[in-house]
Amino acid sequence: MNEIVNAINGVIWSPALIYLCLGVGLYFSLRTRFLQLRHIKEMVRLMFDGKSTDAGVSSFQALAMTLAGRVGTGNIAGVATAITFGGPGALFWMWMVAFLGASSAFVESTLGQVYKEKINGEYRGGPAFYIEKGLGMKWYAWTFAIATVFACGVLLPGVQANSIGSSLQTAFNIDPNVTAAGLALLLGFIIFGGVKRIASFASTVVPFMALGYIIVACVIIAFNIGQLPGVILLIWKSAFGLDAGFGAILGLAIMWGVKRGVYSNEAGQGTGPHASSAAAVSHPAKQGLVQAFSVYIDTLFVCSATGFMLLITGLYNVQGPDGAAIYTGIAGIAAGPGYVQTAMESMMPGFGSIFVAIALFFFAFTTIVAYYYIAETNIAYINRKINRPWLTFLLKIALMAATVYGTVKTADLAWGMGDIGVGLMAWLNIIAILLLQKTAFTCLKDYEAQQAQGIDPVFHPEKLGIKNADYWVGKRSEENLELEKSGHQFEPDQDRKTS
Question: Which residues, other chains included, contact 464 with Cβ-Cβ below 8 Å and sequence gap of 6+?
Fold first, then answer.
């Protein structure tokens, strides 16, 4: 099974996908004049803007749901594996794919808002929706929807569950079979509760867990601040093949940095637009900017905290493409959460390993919940045409089974299957957002123009020449109807301030 999975990954994660992720991020950054730098203040403001409605969630809840998917095993075990197979320089390429990927996250999440729909009283959107409506390619949209249901419902949960099982066994000696049963029961309680319960759970747990982890990591780094300049220099030199010890694996540093960076922050992968489409906002660009900032939180904050801890303590291994050891700082432990647990335990005896296990449980569990929401959204897309309600129930059972299976299987197999899921979605989505980029850039230009006029931006797709944004056109009609009922008189073409 491992050989089959590795062979498939060799095709999906060819150098073409690596350079596509970096190249598209750079291209979008140039086209938007590096919005990820220009609009940082606006991103922070928008995070707390807006309120939830009966149909949608608030901007902050949408951000929390997205971070629930982004902040997961990739931030702990993913950083460890990136350093193991790519050297310290892999961390730099994770930063690079996050910085450039913020613009990709803006494009895909803005598109998700533009083409979202209201299904059974809830906002739904994502790549399948904008591929069908924006490109008019239903076969492509169905391909993405089916691939995403398979990736998020079957392939990806096992990675998160495996790390939970491994870390709890290390910290508390809990048998993975017991962990698997507990995860299945807890997961069932959350996912059978609907989108609102998922949003409430994520907005409560995610900020707490991410902030707590970053604070503890920063304390460890502060106690060893004298080593930080040397660590940063090591990362920089290793990233460009300038370090004598790690120079031979420059190509692997780029490959593993991008692969684990995309896995961690998911920019361009197509997962982010699902949660961002659920937000109740007045303009699509608002969620685009919020989701761009979420990439920073994930990689530049949480992943960096993990990477610095490992490199400062020296408790990590690096191996070459032939499996030969290049650096050994923690013999006898497989690449994964065990590195981070050992590193933190060395600095905080009696507390470090337990803290990482608890943090990883929350990180990974919320990610599994987010995977369910993403897969369910694509089931909702499919059911618009064929109406098979039992598909949602089948998804819940499949995701719980995948979680149990991943908990008790080997880490290599779990990660390999997860990489297949990420790679499939990334290929399909990046091509789609490249073809639809004009719509996203039009939205950004309109948002900035309205801001310059000193008004809160409101989206009117018909005025921008954007077609098939049916939700927004219907929303205007509903608002105008309410105004008419109240006796308000206005001209059909009157500006946005009236409506």
Answer: 442, 443, 446
